[in-house]
Amino acid sequence: MSAKTYEVRTYGCQMNVHDSERLSGLLEDAGYVRAPEGTAEGDADVVVFNTCAVRENADNKLYGNLGRLAPMKTKRPGMQIAVGGCLAQKDRDTIVKRAPWVDVVFGTHNIGKLPVLLERARIQEEAQVEIAESLEAFPSTLPTRRESAYAAWVSISVGCNNTCTFCIVPALRGKEKDRRTGDILAEIEALVAEGVSEITLLGQNVNAYGSDIGDREAFSKLLRACGRIEGLERVRFTSPHPRDFTDDVIAAMAETPNVMHQLHMPLQSGSDTVLKAMRRSYRQERFLGIIEKVRAAMPDAAISTDIIVGFPGETEEDFEQTMHVVREARFANAFTFQYSKRPGTPAATMDDQIPKEVVQARYERLVALQEEISWDENKKQVGRTLEVMVAEGEGRKDDATHRLSGRAPDNRLVHFTKPDEPVRPGDVVTVEITYAAPHHLLAEGPAKAVRRTRAGDAWEKRTAAATAKPAGVMLGIPAIGAPAPSPAPAAAGCGGCGD
């Protein structure tokens, strides 16, 4: 009898993407195999939805997808559907009522129970709903099927202690809980031994690391410790919070060779009035002060951000303050969001909700300004020689253009002419930038150098192993990188919460 197949569909932030790697690992540990590439919708034996709750229409999207699977499940006895993640944590009591064909509902704190709950639902022939109110075990202890052989997420904390009025994450992920530094470093060392050369430290509020263990400099110490791991070429982190971004972190970034000069620093608004209403614990002057210090220590740093347009009560003057900060900060790129109500958040019931057409007009002005700045900043890269780590699946037109794609140290996307010699994802190619667009760089000349790496070896080994058995399907999410070169439009903070 052949093994049962599974499919994981993921929505939301990097935390969910990494949780889905763990869900895949758990299922494979329990004997399931990933559904072959090209499997028709509903043909997997187990379909898992790892959900997000930060968008107003998140539940509509979930129930629409569940609705399409209902008739398929009727035709296929034994097929199972599981719903986990933030929406499951929030709507625990309503999912099975609205979609009684769902077999398992589990929350953000007990993803390790999925195989057991699936088996229990099969034996008892009734839905299993199990939502833990607090973390049962730090999820990094669970088996993980990583999506990349050369770049990896490493979770350093879960949960968040902030109370931003637009964000429901703390209610669903709980209070911040930090991992032991030794456990984090042990995981990184194990990944490097397997061939990984780039890691992204991950937390809802990553630079608050240490608050749970009473050490305000724990995050900068962790960055410096990563610098001592032989074979680890690139270290990134996301997403920090301006409140906790201290001078020792800037120094650690500047002084640790393998910590990349790339920073994702969520602004949300440039208006002090709006920041106060959002319960963000910094103001415009503090934010710009951080940017100034980062640029003084690392003039080549690429800084990105999250911005919410149209928060309740935002006036034209408030919006102009956001535009002012964008002009001053000169972000390499910005993930801009039109405010949408998150059910269960204080902001959802605030007065002075901004009309949709006003929000849309402001949003378009902000995007136009940021596009202009991104292009100008990218043009400064023309003529520079960069080491690009070759990525898998980042260049949609690569085959047609005979190019490859990868990430520069500052995380800019680079498309470059395919070298004569074989190059694998994870290898490093040195190129000269000849053209800049707002969202990518182009290197049209021949490569200056190609460095084959242990990460490329790891990719080759994994690819060879995959061809010996049915190929897997990628997680059901928009492409967001390698998977980890950090931050991505689908996942800057939690749908723009930045905590």
From TrEMBL:
[4Fe-4S] cluster 2 binds at residues 160, 164, 167. Residues 4-123 form the MTTase N-terminal domain. Belongs to the methylthiotransferase family. MiaB subfamily. GO terms for molecular function: tRNA-2-methylthio-N(6)-dimethylallyladenosine(37) synthase activity. This is tRNA-2-methylthio-N(6)-dimethylallyladenosine synthase. CDD domains: Radical_SAM. It comes from Streptomyces aureoversilis. It is found in: Cytoplasm. The gene is miaB. The keyword Metal-binding applies. It holds the Pfam family UPF0004. Monomer. InterPro entries: Elp3/MiaA/NifB-like_rSAM (IPR006638), Methylthiotransferase (IPR005839), Methylthiotransferase_CS (IPR020612), Methylthiotransferase_N (IPR013848), Methylthiotransferase_N_sf (IPR038135), MiaB_methiolase (IPR006463), rSAM (IPR007197), rSAM_horseshoe (IPR023404).
